[in-house]
Amino acid sequence: MPLLSTYCKTKGWPYAIAWCHRIAGLFLTAYLCFHTYTLLSLSSPPRFDATMKIYRFLLFTFLEWALAIPVIFHALNGGRLILYEGFEMRNDKSMIHYLFGLSFLYVALLGVLMLIGTQSVSPVFYWLTMLIAALILAYRVGSKFWKTRHSIPWKLQRITGAFLLVMVPAHLLFMHLNPSIGKEANTVIIRMQNWFIKFVDLGLIVFVFYHAGYGLISVMRDYISFKAFKIILTALIISVLAIVALAGARMTFAV
């Protein structure tokens, strides 16, 4: 924390937050690949249940809750950047206060829901509501950015970011409304067999892996100047994330 404090004092909070945003993005991309790999074990329900039993220990429960910190921080700060770039909301002090305040509220709410652990919600109704909200927000951002002179990949990064701003925190919240929702193979499989849920899951896979891939490539290009090395790393990032995404899509269809 002394290092963060030094950066904040010398270069300002926006600079320090930009670094935290990138670090959170790198961490979440790694977790995304791990999460997809874990879900692949749904092809063998007993193996999936055995794996999930490990995650029921107190330490892993705490880590699951702590995961909400980089998730909501990255999502809300991405929203702050979109507002800054496209909607001329450039009062950094107020926006940063909202960023930390809303992040704290989300993490606290998730903790309460995890402690109670007896909630129940209709998956179709829940995801229909969240999908409508996410599509409206993505359309609003897309209509604002699409006429700009930026590249199409850059525009898609902002549009997918707006979509995921709703869907990823919603996904994390949904998975902890009831302990069985994400930790019992039969419950997960029954939910994923619904055609609408398949559609939502496939949309999440496409959007989140594109967003992650573009983010990784952008960070890499900021720090590597050797052109051949850039090309190799870009190809590697695209290949690895495409393989993981295809494995996730295939599993979604197969369940």
Question: How would you portray this structure in words?
Answer:
With 255 residues, this protein is mainly alpha-helical. The protein has one domain: 3 helical TM bundles of succinate and fumarate reductases (Up-down Bundle). It is 85% helix and 0% strand. α2 crosses α11, α7 packs antiparallel against α8 and α8 crosses α11. The chain is globular, with a radius of gyration of 19 Å. The N and C termini lie far apart (45 Å).
Short summary of the structure?
The chain has 255 residues and is mainly alpha-helical.
Shape by Cα distribution: globular
Can you write the helix and strand succession as a string?
Answer: HHHHHHHHHHHH
How many β-strands, per DSSP?
0
Structure classification: mainly alpha
Overall pLDDT confidence: 88
Helix count equals 12
- CATH architecture annotation name: Up-down Bundle
Helix fraction bin: over 70%
- CATH domain fold name: 3 helical TM bundles of succinate and fumarate reductases
